[in-house]
Amino acid sequence: MPVYPASFPRGGALYADWVAGYDIAGEEGFAENPDNDAFDNLAEYGLGGAA
Fold it and tell me: Mean per-residue pLDDT for 25-46?
């Protein structure tokens, strides 16, 4: 059974491009949560949110 992503990044941006748009040096990992909200970077990226 194929697995499809829940959402696509805006404009086809890659994760590294998304991270580069925020001042989160040292906290770029998927599981990091630099803004200390309920979502890690990967969740925020997938949902189109801000780091």
Answer: 93
Provide the CB-side half-sphere exposure for 10 (13 A, CA). Answer: 8
Q: Are 30 and 42 in contact (CB under 8 A)?
A: yes
Q: What is the mean pLDDT of residues 36-51?
A: 90
Q: Distance between CA 2 and CA 17 in Å, rounded?
A: 26
Task: Measure the CA–CA gap between 51 and 18, rounded to whole angstroms.
Answer: 9
Q: What is the C-alpha separation between 24 and 33, in angstroms, rounded?
A: 9
**Radius of gyration of the chain measured on its C-alpha atoms:** 11
Say if pTM beats, i.e. exceeds, 0.90. no
